[in-house]
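User:
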Amino acid sequence: YTNRLPMGLAERADVIVDFTNVPVGSYVLGNVGPDEPYGGGVPGTDFPVADPASTGQIMQFNVVPSVAPDPTTPPEFLQLPAITPLPPETVTRPLALLEEMSGFFEDSPAEAVLGTVAFDATGTGTWTKRLWMDPVTEDPAVGATEVWEFYNATGDAHPIHIHETVFEVINRQDIFVNEFDEQVQVVPGSVATGPEPWETGFKDTVTAFPGQVTRVRAQFNTPGQFVWHCHIVEHEDNEMMRPFRIGPAQAGQPG
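Assistant: Predicted structure:
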């Protein structure tokens, strides 16, 4: 990606920009993502980039002549704090990212939803969609470490956010999606790819790409009822949000 950093909605990044050899002038931090649903790929090759006159512009930098010696530490000499990995997981939860297709418009989704996946002995997983009003299905114990697997059976990438915890991105792997039977399966012989270089710290939002399972490891330390959801506003407001509970049910919580 050279000087590019792919980011989904609600993702955050601490970025160090070295202006040492940049000539005086004005520069624009640009967006080369698409002005359409994102499914991964190379900007300008797999999709048209954002409009450079509007959505393609994020922030302008004005580089001016220096007025004093630079006291900052060169990036190559920075010492970042060590990361303590989470403990091994005790539970793995297969979850589904789904679309309900329109009955009126061909090949057009009517709504985005979440769900659970149940695997049989052959490695074939059948999904069940779960609506916001349905009972809680994700209920880790207080202090438990779990792996959540997001099987993306849709045609778009979804930035998935889990409230009240941080997680490690483990890997991604290709899957087969059988829309007719509502099933998913990890592609036999496929190799899981580890997190991207910018995903090696702790996160609370991860981009789940279409045709893949994205796996994250999280520790759940705060008791209570929270939500996990896609961070695209139209999706989270259209059934792509689910409650989950850490620890036992508390007074006043819904089912």
